[in-house]
Design goal:
Distance between the termini: 11 Å
Number of strands: 5
CATH architecture: 3-Layer(aba) Sandwich
Largest sheet: 5 strands, parallel
CATH topology: Rossmann fold
Radius of gyration: 15 Å
Order of helices and strands: HEHEHEHHEHHE
Structural class: alpha/beta
Strand content: 15-25%
Number of helices: 7
Length: 165
Amino acid sequence: MPADLAMWADRYEVIILEGCDGVGKTTYAAALATGYGYQRVHADRTPEGTDLFQRHRSILTLPGRLVMDRSFVSELVYGPLLHGRCRLTSAQVAELLSMVNTRHGVLVHLHATPEHIHARLLARDGAAPTLDELRAVVARYFVVFSDLARHVEVLTVDNADSSAA
């Protein structure tokens, strides 16, 4: 892994791993849970009708060291791209980011080229979105993280040369 997990563990109580499917979030989350005592939470897409804000708010109030394998950030990326809207308001996102800051947290943007992600997903799952779809997701993550970095610490990790997926 190209990231310095020991440094992350020394500095952050909450680590939120985000990025396109197949970029290595689960691999990093497992390493942080196993090697550094983080409680691991995997956040799948919250079904329609569920209060997404309250779900993520309750996760961020869990005690102790926490590593999230996906989070509310995914909604900011995939919601508009796949569903035409984000289910979180700006005020709700601001409150969640404030909670991350209060917990000495960090957002980690794991990324790779669409070509690397495509190959990983094909090898792992036997299927993958098109390269154009992946380009749109990767580009949207960069836009979202650029905005979020004005409010919370963001680490960007190029995971293209890693075997993590």
